[in-house]
Specification:
Length: about 120
């Protein structure tokens, strides 16, 4: 199994921070600043075991990336985690061929979108 994680985010600081965390955990992080860049990288890097995808980016964004992935013959083999700092009420779920699965608080698939709200934040 590949130990490569594709990190797709327009925020350079976040990409670099995720790269450090992933590298420390023994993964190889491949960084892309846009959906378009990520799609190009998929043809040149080893198959990622996970894609960490920013929800809101300029250009094609997460929806464009997910739509392009669905056109691939190997679409079912991609594991994608959508990341965002936006409140849940501002999210518009991309139109996907299959419903997304998200991880609930306990880490078990819940089969629905789950947003983080500031009020849910625990003690600092």
């Amino acid at each position: 199994m590949s130990r490569t994680v594709l990190v797709v985010d327009d925020d350079l600081d976040l990409r670099v921070a995720l790269e450090e965390v992933l590298t420390d955990a023994g993964y190889h992080a491949v960084l892309a600043q846009s959906a378009e860049h990520a799609l190009q990288l998929l043809d040149t890097v080893s198959r990622p075991c996970l894609v960490l995808l920013d929800y809101a980016m300029p250009g094609a964004g997460a929806e464009g990336f997910l739509s392009a992935i669905q056109e691939r013959a190997d679409a079912e083999s991609f594991s994608v985690v959508l990341m965002t700092g936006r409140p849940a009420q501002r999210l518009k779920m991309p139109r996907l061929a299959a419903p997304p699965r998200s991880l609930g608080r306990a880490g078990a698939p819940s089969g629905s979108w789950k947003g983080w709200e500031p009020a849910e934040r625990g003690p600092a």
